[in-house]
Design a protein that fits this description.
binds 1-[(4S)-2,5-dioxoimidazolidin-4-yl]urea; TIM Barrel; Urease, subunit C, domain 1; binds zinc ion; EC 3.5.2.5; hydrolase; globular; alpha/beta; nine-stranded mixed beta sheet; Metal_Hydrolase; 450 residues; zinc ion binding; single chain; Allantoinase
Length: 450
């Protein structure tokens, strides 16, 4: 008798860790149960993926969905839909810019309740790491946070205090014992705040003035400092949204001598340049700022050399009114969680001939391995039935109305991408298909395995 499955995806090109294979894949009870050239048997739902690539659904390690409390900027409902439209099945939400910030069990549970109600796709949470909540790190670990997030410089949110060196040192000692990683936004606070104050005093508020107020050395210096503290304490360290090739080099050197450190970068540091930001305006303002093309070429070289562990979106939207004004003064943050996979398919796969399995590693597999998330991030038997179906032959020019964000703004509006996500499948259920959200929220909380 023929076997019966819940879902079979037939005839697709599966992007597996070992390479791309033409095969069928079957899902039962939310998990991949079989991968074979031709799966005999029937399914409740058969998906014909002929001509399409089947990627593992992507995991975005770094988003700010701002829910609860700043839902006029973004929400878990809209953010998770946008992620799904870009092939995403899982995200790790930052402990700011929601309000209250995620700084203890109570604020964690408030966010969890929203996600349980509204999240289309799966989710994990970052805990906050500030001078005021060092006594809550263990309680957040109990809640199941995937790691902790700290800022070396002003975070943009008054309630989320920056981690001074003392806080970083003693907090890292605690995290080393808890066995959870610390991600740090690395920009030297003293230099960025002094240069910013000086620029403001002289009314220098253009895009170039903003770049000058946050030069590469602020990142490089702070990455070196955080590596020293991690080396001393044994805390696992992840550098957030690394933007300079010199800082990546520091991470690589430290890892080679045995420090438990790695780095994340963001699509926009690989795709946009300082000149683009000048053209685009405040929609492309972020911190650290987007750098020059020479640095970007070196970033690509290091990415392709395996020195950057994963690529996230740092989706950090705001009310568009907050982008209206002088460059130096407006909100820093870019909306991007819907475009990470198409952007990498275009700029890595298409333009630089990066292997598709390497793109899958950078967007799905590595981040789940780093955070010890079981059963997520690759197409393999026993893993969740999470897929992004992609038509690599189909290009599209991003229109504002394609965006599922709360506010339909992005620096990529008008940009052309090579590779269209046609369908996103979360644990066997199609959540996005041909431009539409086709499921109610079914996201589940994921937590690291110890
Ligand atoms: N608070 C916040 O989201 N900040 C983010 N925005 C940005 O551009 N960089 C960040 O760290
Ligand atoms: Zn940051
Ligand atoms: Zn961020």
């Amino acid at each position: 008798m023929n076997k019966r499955y819940e879902v079979i995806i037939r005839n697709g090109l599966l992007v597996c860790p070992e390479g791309v294979i033409k095969a069928d894949v079957a899902v039962c009870d939310e998990k991949i149960v079989e991968i074979a050239e031709e799966i005999a048997g029937e399914a409740r739902e058969t998906i014909d993926a002929a001509g399409q690539h089947v990627f593992p659904g992507i995991t975005d390690g770094h988003v700010h969905f701002n829910d609860p409390g700043r839902t006029e900027w973004e929400t878990i409902a809209t953010g998770s839909q946008a992620l799904a439209a870009g092939g995403g099945v899982l995200y790790f939400d930052m402990p700011l810019n929601c309000s209250p910030c995620t700084l203890d069990a109570k604020t964690f549970n408030a966010k969890l309740a929203v996600a349980q109600r509204d999240s289309l796709v799966d989710y994990g949470f970052w805990g906050g790491f500030t001078p005021n909540n060092l006594d809550k790190l263990a309680e957040l670990a109990e809640c199941g946070v995937i790691g902790f997030k700290a800022f070396s410089c002003f975070s943009g949110i008054d309630e989320f205090g920056r981690a001074d060196d003392y806080t970083a040192l003693v907090g890292m000692e605690t995290l080393a014992k808890l066995g959870l990683p610390l991600m740090v936004h690395c920009e030297n606070a003293e230099i960025t705040s002094a240069l910013t104050a000086k620029a403001l005093m002289h009314n220098k508020t253009t895009v170039r003035d903003y770049f000058a107020a946050r030069p590469p050395i602020t990142e490089i210096e702070n990455v070196a400092r955080m590596i020293s503290l991690a080396e001393e304490t044994g805390c696992k360290l992840i550098i957030a949204h690394i933007s300079t090739a010199r800082a990546v080099a520091l991470v690589t050197e430290a890892r080679r001598r045995g420090v438990d450190v790695c780095c994340e970068t963001i699509g926009h540091y690989l795709i946009l340049t300082a000149d683009d930001v000048e053209q685009l305006g405040t929609v492309a303002k972020c911190s650290p700022p987007i750098r020059d093309p020479k640095n970007q070429a070196k970033m690509w070289a290091r990415l392709l050399n395996g020195e950057i562990a994963f690529v996230s979106s740092d989706h950090s939207p705001c009310d568009p009114k907050l982008k209206d004004g002088e460059f130096l003064k407006v909100w820093g943050g870019i909306s991007a969680c819907q475009t990470t996979l198409p952007a990498l398919l275009t700029h890595a796969g298409h333009a630089r001939k990066v292997a598709l399995e390497d793109i899958a590693r950078l967007t799905a597999q590595n981040v789940n391995e780093i955070f010890n998330i079981p059963g997520k991030g690759k197409i393999a038997v026993g893993y969740d039935g999470d897929f992004a179906l992609v038509d690599l032959a189909k290009s599209f020019a991003l229109q504002a109305e394609d965006l599922f964000y709360k506010h339909q703004v992005s620096p990529y509006v008008g940009a052309t991408f090579q590779g269209t996500v046609t369908q996103t499948i979360l644990r066997g259920t199609t959540v996005f298909k041909h431009g539409r959200i086709v499921s109610k929220p079914i996201g589940k909380h994921v937590r690291p395995k110890f």
